Structure formats: C-alpha cells, structure tokens
Amino acid sequence: MKKRIAALAVAVALLASACTTGSPSASGGNAEPGSLPTLEQKDTYTIGFSAQQSDHPWTIALNESIKSEAEKRGHKVVTTDAQGSTAKQVSDVESLIAQRVDVIVISPREEKPLAEATIKARDAGIPVFIVDRKVDASVAEPGKDYVAYIGSDFVAEGRAAGEWLVKRLDGTGKIIELTGTTGSSAADDRHKGFMEALEGSSIEIVASQDGDFVRDNGRQLMETLIQQYPDVDGVFAHNDEMMLGAITAMTAASKKPGTDIATVSVDGQKEALQAIVDGTLGATAECNPRFGPAVLDAIEAYGKGEKVTPEQVNTDAFYDASNAAAELPNAF
C-alpha cells in the first residue's frame, strides 16, 4: 500500500509539472490566455515593429521615429513592412510572435484583423503596444489585452477640418470627401468628427469615396468627380497625400484649388504646408507621426513595473495661412 501511495504521489507531481510547462514567454511574461503579459526589466529589448507600409511620407516618418528612438536607447528593432496589405500585416505579427521578440509594437492598417493578431501575441505572453491607428475595442482593449494605445485624436482632426470648412464656406455649399482606408480607425473617426462639425450647416456632401490614403488615388478620384460635380464648393481629404493628388486634378480641370474650391485635409506634412503657403490648400489638421519617444518611454516604464496609461493621445496643431510658413521648417 505504501508503495502504491508513493507511486501515485510521483505521478501527480509529474502531471503538475507537465501542466505548468507551457510555451516559453517573452522576457518572463505571463503566457496565460486572457491576461496582460508582463515584461522583464532589461537594459536591451528586442522590439518587434509591425509597420503597415513604408512608401508614404507619413508612415516613413512614423517608422523612422520609432526605429531611431529605440536604437538611440540601445534596443534592437525587428521591423516588418506589410506593404499596405492587411493580410500580410497579420502574417507579420505572427512571424514576430514566432521569433519570440520581447515586445511588439503595431501600427495597424485595419481595426479588427489586427485586434485578433494582438490577442495572439497576448496569449503567447508578449506585451503589445498599438500606435497611430486603433484596433477593434470589442476584440482587444488597451490595459487589458494590450498595454497601451498611443496616437492622435482622429475625431478631433476631422472636427477641426470640418469647422474650418464650414467657416470658409459660410455654412453652405456642396463638397466632396476623399476618405481613407475603409475599416481603419483613422478614416472612420475623421469622418465622424467631420460630420459633427457639419451639423447645423447647409453643407451637402455630394460624393464620399475611398482613396486609401494614396496620392494617386486622390488624383484619379478627383479627375472623375470634378467632371460629375463641376460646381463643387469644397473638398475634404482624410490626409494630405490624397489632397495633393486632388489639387493636381483640379488644376488640370482649370479649377483653382484654394480659390474656386475650398480645400482642407489632415496630417501637416511639409508639402501640404508648402501648398498652404502657395494658396492651393486652405488648411490641414496636424497628425504628428513622431511617436518614437512616447512609445519607448511606455515600453521602458512597463518593463520597470510602472503603471502605463492605457490610452495616450497626442496634442496636435492646426495649420492655415496664419502659421504654415513659420512651421514649414518643422514639418515632416
């Protein structure tokens, strides 16, 4: 009997050991599903950075800000480029998980698919930080499923652009809206803020089409829309790149953007500020891409066990004829 009891005790101990031996977690993080992973404090982290693309002035500035700030502090950065593909970005995040990086930073192209990828990283015990665009909060929440969101207030950007346009058009007129990538928080929220600003005015949106935040798409869309709506009074583009393309199309159609047609966009890139100085763009709401210092501060604080604010929002500026020339040297 004593031998049987001893054998049973050994079996139970082995079973318990097997149950607590799971896949290795990053930097000693918690790999249990449903919990926020921890991050071991180290002098050097290997940071996986999932970039949505690298061929756009705004994302180039964002990517460089994060990489340069991390390297300046002595950390290693493993960067992936989704090249504008949501499916590839999901695969990129899965690759970073497989590489067992210490922490993952995601600049998500779309909300839901990247929220699901965030959950995979969480369950693998790797802390995630979301930067720029948000992920679907019904799938993954900051402070619960990932450490923090660090970005701009897209609703406020859209509202600021809308308020400027309402004032510029004296509350009446027909406008065209060039929207960003369908399914992205930047496009959804900028449209929401813009519509809030238009409430109570007599401004009518005669066309709203997705230009995917791409300059040439903005140009092509405007080439068609300016023919359909030759008497349009204003154009709102969800980013400067689409607006710069639209300005080219309006000019080719013998319209004077900024004079015949009121123009307003979002981002505040150098070429857009120059367009304000030149008079072809009326205004742009800033969306500053230089997130590097804030992201690295948050990662290092989390590694030290300090409390990290789940949602961190940048304070952005607004550029028009009153300040564009002075701010031009500081633009990205």
TrEMBL record:
Belongs to the bacterial solute-binding protein 2 family. Its main location: other. Residues 1-18 form the signal peptide. This is Ribose transport system substrate-binding protein. Pfam families: Peripla_BP_4. Residues 47-289 form the Periplasmic binding protein domain. InterPro entries: Peripla_BP_I (IPR028082), SBP_2_dom (IPR025997). Keywords: Signal. SUPFAM superfamilies: Periplasmic binding protein-like I.
